[in-house]
Write a structure and sequence with these properties.
The structure holds two protein chains of two kinds. By secondary structure, chain A is mainly α. Chain A contains 14 helices and no strands. Chain A has one domain: Orthogonal Bundle (MetI-like fold). Chain B starts with a helix and ends with a helix. At the A-B interface, helix 5, helix 6, helix 11 and helix 13 of A face helix 1, helix 2, helix 6, helix 7 and helix 8 of B. Chain A: It is found in: Cell membrane.
Chain lengths: 317, 309
């Protein structure tokens, strides 16, 4: 007989391993409540990619706002044809364009153009997309039918092709606002679709029913309860659309239906440099690098934000 | 299935009317004289203006103009180019070249994207996965014209492996470099789509069942995981076609490929508005048809779509 059996027992009885009740019941009542946004922030700040993209975006914003801090050389006048496609000189670290303008200065002064187009397009896309998607998803029925078909129509025309047509017609009025409108007016359906799908999911939640039971008006439920709980995927897609808008502007300028050549724009500079690819590749490569790094920083930010806000993406990491 | 096809075709009608109306509206209902505006800084001769006015029925009320334009499209009349050649004739000559380029590009992006996506997904979090992510992020960030010029500079000018411009007749060996450039746009998307789908499928019950039946990983990966992961990639083809059309416009322009894209590119560069409008209309129509076909293909592949309301 095993020695750990007590005399009164016929069989071995395992000792009771009691879990201390304190551990089960302890709820951190005074701890910070955790929600999607605080979780996302905790996740994001651990990732080096977030800090790299944030630093790059900060740099781009500072360059766009204060180009004078980075260069004293005027980008447009002061160009001398004797410097055409010339190499670096003191005070002109990156050399000269075909027209003999300072490449470095043109890159610095072109930053605000790209960033403004990106921000204005994103504003247009987010506004139209949120309004259309929210109304279609929340009110359903004929509102959904009409708005979703409208979205289908706009979605069926690739937005760069649409922008090419609009800019061909409005070529005399081309400026940052017009080009942003031309891109944004056809780019919103993707955002609307994402938001609509999310609202369809959220609007059947218990808290919506609770608000309805309390007599809160439909519109107020949409704005105060449903929208804040379904906005996360919109934020992800918006960050990425900012990058796409910058690329779209550069593409239109490259095609010659973008901004007028008097406006400083990386797309214009790349377009003008293309004929000299063989002899002076740096005039094309340098503005391309500025453009790509800016786009990359927004794409990386979108990536990090997606991983943080979308549980499925987080699981797949 | 027949019901699904009928429903899908019916749904396509308002979209078809809507897109053509939208394009027409953008060009002809904006303030100012549309004919003059279409020529930008150039001044067309009065004879050309008169001819275009007649062609677009600008003396009629707007809605009548639109229906006449729509009627023309259904008869295959897309207008005439700047040089007076019918757009439908130009299309017949250039479309095969673009189709060849697009098929080649889709082939490259599918082979590379699916292979890399599969390996990344199976070895999630590894070195290969991490490097594939970095490369795909960089490729997404590079605008197509930058990739085209860099490829032209390195492989065409510096290394001399390919011709920098395509010779007449567009033989396959000249189309390889432009097709690779065109493939880079969607390569990253396909890689990531495949990766996510593979990770998802790998945790499904039928994969575990297959493993517990004693099947080797070598059989599970292609038969059970890969095949089931490809459905989202097939649907992406529809979106991809829109991306390819814009990409082809730029790529064909840069590499001088004698296709539909280059014709549009040159019309844009030269400011030939009416030709631009005709070609954009044609491209949007092709895009709609391809989308419809992909939707039908998707329904064949995945029965759930057919029966869903």
């Amino acid at each position: 007989m095993p020695s750990n059996t007590r005399p009164t027992q016929a069989h071995y009885v395992a000792p009771l391993e009691e879990t201390p009740l304190v551990a089960i019941d302890s709820v951190k009542a005074d701890g910070k409540p955790s929600n999607l946004w605080t979780d996302a922030w905790k996740d994001v700040r651990k990732r080096p990619m977030f800090w790299i993209s944030a630093a790059l975006i900060l740099l781009v914003v500072i360059v766009a706002l204060f180009p004078g801090w980075f260069t004293q050389v005027p980008p447009n006048n002061d160009c001398q044809l004797s410097n055409s496609n010339g190499g670096p000189q003191p005070d002109h670290p990156l050399g000269f364009t075909k027209q003999g303008c300072d490449i470095y200065s043109r890159i610095i002064h072109g930053t605000s153009t790209s960033l403004s187009v990106g921000l204005i397009v994103t504003f247009i896309v987010a506004t139209l997309g949120i309004v259309m998607g929210a109304l279609a998803g929340f009110y359903g029925r004929w509102v959904d039918a009409v708005l979703s078909r409208l979205g289908d129509i706009f979605f069926s025309i690739p937005y760069i092709l649409a922008a090419v047509v609009i800019m061909s017609v409005l070529s005399q009025y081309a400026n940052v606002w017009v080009i942003s409108l031309a891109i944004g007016i056809f780019a919103w359906p993707a955002t609307a679709r994402v938001l609509r799908a999310e609202i369809l999911r959220v609007k059947n939640s218990d808290f919506v029913m609770a608000a309805t039971a309390l007599g809160v008006s439909r519109f107020r439920i949409l704005v105060r309860h449903v929208l804040p709980n379904s906005i996360a995927p919109v934020i992800v897609i918006t960050t990425i659309s900012l990058a796409s808008a910058i690329v779209a502007e550069a593409t239109l300028s490259f095609l010659g239906v973008g901004l007028p050549s008097s406006t400083m724009s990386w797309g214009n500079d790349i377009s003008q440099a293309q004929t000299d690819l063989r002899t002076a590749p740096q005039t094309l490569i340098l503005p391309s690098i500025a453009l790509s790094v800016t786009v990359l920083s927004f794409i990386m930010l979108g990536e990090v934000v997606r991983d943080a806000l979308d549980p499925k993406a987080r699981a797949q990491r | 299935m027949a019901g699904y096809i009928a429903r899908r075709l019916l749904q396509a009608i308002p979209v078809l009317l809507g897109t053509t109306f939208l394009i027409y509206f953008m060009v002809f209902a904006l303030p100012g004289d549309p004919i003059i505006a279409l020529f930008g800084e150039k001044t067309p001769s009065p004879a050309v203006v008169e001819q275009l006015r007649e062609r677009y029925n600008l003396d009629q009320p707007f809605i009548v103009q639109y229906f006449l334009f729509l009627g023309g499209i259904f008869r295959g009349d897309f207008g005439t180019s700047f040089s007076g050649q019918p757009v439908s004739e130009i299309l017949a000559a250039t479309f095969p070249v673009t189709l060849r380029l697009a098929v080649l590009a889709v082939f490259f992006e599918m082979v590379a994207g699916i292979t890399i996506g599969l390996v990344s997904g199976l070895r999630k979090g590894g070195i290969f996965d991490a490097s594939a992510l970095v490369v795909s992020l960089i490729l997404i960030s590079l605008p197509i014209f930058v990739i085209a010029f860099v490829a032209q500079f390195i492989f065409g000018i510096q290394l001399g492996w390919f011709r920098t411009t395509v010779s007449s007749g567009a033989p396959i060996q000249d189309l390889i470099l432009p097709a690779i450039v065109l493939a880079t746009i969607s390569f990253a998307q396909i890689t990531r789509l495949t990766r996510a789908s593979v990770i998802d499928t790998d945790t499904q019950d039928f994969v575990r069942t297959a493993a517990s039946k004693g099947l080797s990983r070598r059989r599970i990966v292609p038969v059970h995981i890969l095949r089931n992961s490809l459905i989202p990639v097939v649907t992406y083809l529809a979106v991809d076609f829109g991306v390819l059309m814009v990409g082809a416009t730029v790529t064909e322009g840069i590499f001088n490929v004698p296709g539909v894209g280059r014709t549009l590119y040159q019309a844009i560069i030269r400011g030939e508005g009416p030709t631009v409008v005709s070609f954009v209309t044609v491209m949007v129509l092709i895009y709609l048809v391809i989308n419809l076909l992909v939707d039908l293909l998707y329904a064949v592949l995945d029965p759930r779509i057919r029966y869903a309301k």
